[in-house]
Amino acid sequence: MKRHQGLFITFEGSEGCGKSTQSKMLLDHLEAEGVLAVLLREPGGVKISEKVREILLDKKNTAMTKECETLLYMAARAQLVEEALLPELKKGKVVILDRFLDSTVAYQGYGCGVDAATIRAIGLFATQGVQPDVTFFLDLDAAEGLRRRGSERDRIEERALEYHQRVRRGYQAIAEEEPARVVQIDGKLSKESIFEIIRKRVDLLLREKGHA
Ligand code: TMP
Question: What is the pLDDT of residues 92-109, one digit of tens each?
Fold first, then answer.
Protein backbone atom coordinates (compact mmCIF):
# COMPACT_ATOMS: atom_id res chain seq x y z
CA MET A 1 0.00 0.00 0.00
CA LYS A 2 1.23 3.47 -0.92
CA ARG A 3 2.16 5.70 2.01
CA HIS A 4 0.56 9.12 2.28
CA GLN A 5 -0.26 11.72 4.93
CA GLY A 6 -3.91 12.22 4.06
CA LEU A 7 -7.02 10.25 4.84
CA PHE A 8 -8.72 8.30 2.07
CA ILE A 9 -12.44 7.64 2.54
CA THR A 10 -14.68 5.84 0.04
CA PHE A 11 -18.44 5.48 -0.21
CA GLU A 12 -19.98 2.41 -1.79
CA GLY A 13 -23.38 0.88 -2.39
CA SER A 14 -25.93 0.06 -5.03
CA GLU A 15 -28.19 2.55 -6.82
CA GLY A 16 -30.13 4.99 -4.67
CA CYS A 17 -28.42 3.95 -1.41
CA GLY A 18 -27.77 7.56 -0.35
CA LYS A 19 -23.97 7.56 -0.60
CA SER A 20 -23.75 10.76 -2.67
CA THR A 21 -25.84 12.64 -0.08
CA GLN A 22 -23.70 11.26 2.75
CA SER A 23 -20.41 12.07 1.02
CA LYS A 24 -21.55 15.68 0.56
CA MET A 25 -22.66 15.85 4.22
CA LEU A 26 -19.23 14.59 5.25
CA LEU A 27 -17.46 17.16 3.10
CA ASP A 28 -19.58 19.97 4.63
CA HIS A 29 -18.87 18.67 8.14
CA LEU A 30 -15.12 18.50 7.59
CA GLU A 31 -14.98 21.94 6.01
CA ALA A 32 -16.94 23.37 8.93
CA GLU A 33 -14.33 21.83 11.25
CA GLY A 34 -11.54 23.46 9.26
CA VAL A 35 -10.23 20.16 7.88
CA LEU A 36 -8.88 20.32 4.31
CA ALA A 37 -11.02 17.93 2.32
CA VAL A 38 -12.02 17.23 -1.25
CA LEU A 39 -14.91 15.24 -2.71
CA LEU A 40 -14.43 13.31 -5.95
CA ARG A 41 -16.53 10.76 -7.79
CA GLU A 42 -16.06 7.68 -9.93
CA PRO A 43 -16.22 7.21 -12.78
CA GLY A 44 -15.09 10.80 -13.26
CA GLY A 45 -13.59 13.39 -10.98
CA VAL A 46 -11.13 14.75 -13.56
CA LYS A 47 -11.67 15.80 -17.19
CA ILE A 48 -10.52 12.64 -18.97
CA SER A 49 -12.35 10.36 -16.53
CA GLU A 50 -15.56 12.40 -16.91
CA LYS A 51 -15.32 11.79 -20.68
CA VAL A 52 -14.95 8.06 -20.05
CA ARG A 53 -18.00 8.29 -17.74
CA GLU A 54 -20.10 9.60 -20.63
CA ILE A 55 -19.17 6.56 -22.73
CA LEU A 56 -19.86 4.17 -19.86
CA LEU A 57 -23.28 5.53 -18.97
CA ASP A 58 -24.49 6.24 -22.52
CA LYS A 59 -27.59 4.10 -23.14
CA LYS A 60 -26.75 3.95 -26.85
CA ASN A 61 -23.67 1.79 -26.10
CA THR A 62 -25.67 -1.42 -25.97
CA ALA A 63 -22.90 -3.42 -27.67
CA MET A 64 -20.32 -2.78 -24.93
CA THR A 65 -18.80 -6.04 -23.65
CA LYS A 66 -18.20 -6.69 -19.97
CA GLU A 67 -14.44 -6.74 -20.60
CA CYS A 68 -14.55 -3.34 -22.31
CA GLU A 69 -16.77 -1.99 -19.51
CA THR A 70 -14.36 -3.26 -16.83
CA LEU A 71 -11.34 -1.74 -18.55
CA LEU A 72 -13.06 1.62 -19.09
CA TYR A 73 -13.94 1.86 -15.38
CA MET A 74 -10.31 1.02 -14.63
CA ALA A 75 -9.01 3.56 -17.17
CA ALA A 76 -11.12 6.31 -15.60
CA ARG A 77 -9.82 5.23 -12.18
CA ALA A 78 -6.14 5.20 -13.24
CA GLN A 79 -6.40 8.78 -14.47
CA LEU A 80 -8.18 9.96 -11.32
CA VAL A 81 -5.65 8.25 -9.03
CA GLU A 82 -2.63 9.81 -10.71
CA GLU A 83 -4.12 13.23 -11.47
CA ALA A 84 -6.12 13.93 -8.31
CA LEU A 85 -6.24 11.25 -5.61
CA LEU A 86 -2.52 10.78 -4.95
CA PRO A 87 -1.62 14.51 -5.22
CA GLU A 88 -4.42 15.47 -2.79
CA LEU A 89 -3.42 12.75 -0.32
CA LYS A 90 0.22 13.82 -0.56
CA LYS A 91 -0.89 17.34 0.41
CA GLY A 92 -2.30 15.75 3.56
CA LYS A 93 -5.94 16.27 2.61
CA VAL A 94 -8.93 14.12 3.38
CA VAL A 95 -10.13 12.69 0.08
CA ILE A 96 -13.73 11.52 -0.03
CA LEU A 97 -14.36 9.35 -3.06
CA ASP A 98 -17.87 8.42 -4.18
CA ARG A 99 -17.13 4.85 -5.44
CA PHE A 100 -13.76 3.11 -5.98
CA LEU A 101 -12.46 -0.38 -6.75
CA ASP A 102 -15.16 -2.15 -4.70
CA SER A 103 -17.69 -0.86 -7.27
CA THR A 104 -15.94 -2.81 -10.03
CA VAL A 105 -15.79 -5.96 -7.89
CA ALA A 106 -19.53 -5.61 -7.13
CA TYR A 107 -20.90 -4.38 -10.49
CA GLN A 108 -18.61 -6.06 -13.04
CA GLY A 109 -17.51 -8.99 -10.84
CA TYR A 110 -20.64 -10.10 -8.99
CA GLY A 111 -23.01 -8.32 -11.39
CA CYS A 112 -21.59 -9.24 -14.82
CA GLY A 113 -19.53 -12.32 -13.90
CA VAL A 114 -16.06 -10.91 -14.59
CA ASP A 115 -13.40 -12.94 -12.76
CA ALA A 116 -12.65 -11.36 -9.36
CA ALA A 117 -8.90 -12.16 -9.43
CA THR A 118 -8.61 -10.45 -12.83
CA ILE A 119 -10.41 -7.36 -11.48
CA ARG A 120 -8.08 -7.23 -8.50
CA ALA A 121 -4.98 -7.60 -10.70
CA ILE A 122 -6.02 -4.84 -13.10
CA GLY A 123 -7.20 -2.86 -10.08
CA LEU A 124 -3.74 -2.94 -8.55
CA PHE A 125 -2.32 -1.54 -11.79
CA ALA A 126 -4.98 1.20 -12.04
CA THR A 127 -4.83 2.29 -8.39
CA GLN A 128 -1.05 1.93 -7.94
CA GLY A 129 -1.94 0.00 -4.79
CA VAL A 130 -3.57 2.86 -2.93
CA GLN A 131 -6.31 1.62 -0.63
CA PRO A 132 -9.01 3.43 1.34
CA ASP A 133 -8.44 3.95 5.08
CA VAL A 134 -12.15 3.38 5.50
CA THR A 135 -15.08 2.47 3.25
CA PHE A 136 -18.69 3.21 4.12
CA PHE A 137 -21.02 0.71 2.46
CA LEU A 138 -24.64 1.80 2.56
CA ASP A 139 -26.62 -1.39 2.26
CA LEU A 140 -30.09 -1.10 0.74
CA ASP A 141 -32.59 -3.43 -0.89
CA ALA A 142 -32.04 -3.19 -4.67
CA ALA A 143 -35.71 -2.62 -5.55
CA GLU A 144 -36.00 0.14 -2.94
CA GLY A 145 -32.84 1.80 -4.25
CA LEU A 146 -34.06 1.77 -7.86
CA ARG A 147 -37.39 3.23 -6.72
CA ARG A 148 -35.52 6.05 -5.01
CA ARG A 149 -33.55 6.73 -8.20
CA GLY A 150 -36.76 7.36 -10.19
CA SER A 151 -37.52 6.58 -13.83
CA GLU A 152 -34.61 8.29 -15.62
CA ARG A 153 -31.95 5.58 -15.79
CA ASP A 154 -28.47 5.31 -17.30
CA ARG A 155 -26.98 2.25 -19.05
CA ILE A 156 -26.10 0.48 -15.79
CA GLU A 157 -29.21 1.46 -13.81
CA GLU A 158 -31.38 0.10 -16.65
CA ARG A 159 -30.23 -3.46 -15.95
CA ALA A 160 -32.64 -6.02 -14.47
CA LEU A 161 -33.47 -6.13 -10.77
CA GLU A 162 -31.63 -9.48 -10.46
CA TYR A 163 -28.45 -7.75 -11.64
CA HIS A 164 -28.75 -5.12 -8.93
CA GLN A 165 -29.46 -7.82 -6.35
CA ARG A 166 -26.20 -9.56 -7.31
CA VAL A 167 -24.38 -6.23 -6.94
CA ARG A 168 -25.78 -5.84 -3.43
CA ARG A 169 -24.72 -9.38 -2.49
CA GLY A 170 -21.27 -8.56 -3.88
CA TYR A 171 -20.94 -5.61 -1.55
CA GLN A 172 -22.14 -7.68 1.40
CA ALA A 173 -19.46 -10.29 0.59
CA ILE A 174 -16.75 -7.60 0.41
CA ALA A 175 -17.89 -6.20 3.78
CA GLU A 176 -17.70 -9.67 5.30
CA GLU A 177 -14.21 -10.29 3.88
CA GLU A 178 -12.80 -6.96 5.04
CA PRO A 179 -14.51 -5.92 8.29
CA ALA A 180 -11.55 -3.77 9.39
CA ARG A 181 -11.89 -1.48 6.37
CA VAL A 182 -15.56 -1.69 5.38
CA VAL A 183 -18.24 -0.23 7.63
CA GLN A 184 -21.60 -1.65 6.60
CA ILE A 185 -24.52 0.66 7.39
CA ASP A 186 -28.23 -0.04 7.05
CA GLY A 187 -29.39 2.24 4.20
CA LYS A 188 -32.94 2.27 5.60
CA LEU A 189 -31.82 4.31 8.62
CA SER A 190 -32.53 8.05 8.57
CA LYS A 191 -30.08 10.35 6.83
CA GLU A 192 -29.11 11.77 10.24
CA SER A 193 -28.54 8.36 11.90
CA ILE A 194 -26.38 7.22 9.00
CA PHE A 195 -24.34 10.38 9.14
CA GLU A 196 -23.80 10.03 12.90
CA ILE A 197 -22.15 6.61 12.38
CA ILE A 198 -19.95 8.03 9.61
CA ARG A 199 -19.00 11.18 11.52
CA LYS A 200 -17.94 9.23 14.64
CA ARG A 201 -15.73 6.88 12.65
CA VAL A 202 -14.12 9.67 10.63
CA ASP A 203 -13.49 11.83 13.69
CA LEU A 204 -11.75 8.86 15.33
CA LEU A 205 -9.57 8.26 12.27
CA LEU A 206 -8.68 11.95 12.10
CA ARG A 207 -7.56 11.89 15.73
CA GLU A 208 -5.48 8.78 15.07
CA LYS A 209 -3.85 10.45 12.06
CA GLY A 210 -3.22 13.61 14.07
CA HIS A 211 -5.52 15.81 11.96
CA ALA A 212 -7.73 16.84 14.85
P1 TMP B 1 -22.95 6.76 -9.79
O2 TMP B 1 -24.40 6.62 -10.20
O3 TMP B 1 -22.68 6.41 -8.38
O4 TMP B 1 -22.36 8.09 -10.19
O5 TMP B 1 -22.12 5.64 -10.62
C6 TMP B 1 -22.29 5.50 -11.98
C7 TMP B 1 -22.65 4.10 -12.36
O8 TMP B 1 -21.48 3.35 -12.65
C9 TMP B 1 -23.41 3.31 -11.31
O10 TMP B 1 -24.50 2.66 -11.95
C11 TMP B 1 -22.43 2.29 -10.82
C12 TMP B 1 -21.53 2.08 -12.02
N13 TMP B 1 -20.14 1.64 -11.72
C14 TMP B 1 -19.74 0.37 -12.13
O15 TMP B 1 -20.53 -0.38 -12.69
N16 TMP B 1 -18.44 0.00 -11.89
C17 TMP B 1 -17.52 0.83 -11.31
O18 TMP B 1 -16.36 0.46 -11.14
C19 TMP B 1 -17.96 2.16 -10.90
C20 TMP B 1 -17.00 3.09 -10.26
C21 TMP B 1 -19.28 2.50 -11.12
Answer: 999 999 999 999 999 999
What is the distance in A from the centroid of ligand 1 to the CA of 207? 31
Range of the domain at 101: 7-209
Whole-number mean pLDDT of the chain?
Answer: 96
**Which CATH number do you get for residue 127?**
3.40.50.300
Say yes or no to pLDDT of 212 above 80: no
136 Cβ below 6 A of ligand 1: no
Residue 138 φ/ψ, nearest 5 degrees:
-90, 110
Backbone angles phi, psi at 47, to 5 degrees: -50, -50
The preferred substitution site among 77, 156, 163, 167 for testing ligand 1, maximizing ligand atoms within 8 Å of CB, is 156
| In-domain check, residue 1 | no
- Does residue 2 form part of some domain? no
Report how many helices (DSSP H) and strands (DSSP E) the chain contains, helices first: 9, 5
Considering the entire predicted model, what is its pTM?
Answer: 0.96
157 CA → ligand 1 middle, Å: 9
